[in-house]
Amino acid sequence: PTIYREIGECFDSLSENEECRVIILSAAGKIFTAGLDLSGMLSLGQEIAEQEDVARKSKILRKLITTYQKSISSLERCPKPVISAVHGACIGGGMSLITAADIRYATKDAWFTLKEVDIGLTADVGALQRLPRIIGNQSLVNEIAFTARKIEAAEARECGLVSKLYDDKESLLAGAIELGELIASKSPVAVQGTKKTLVFSRDHAVEEGLNQVVSISLLTVFLT
Question: Could you tell me if 93 and 199 lie in one domain?
Answer without folding.
Answer: no
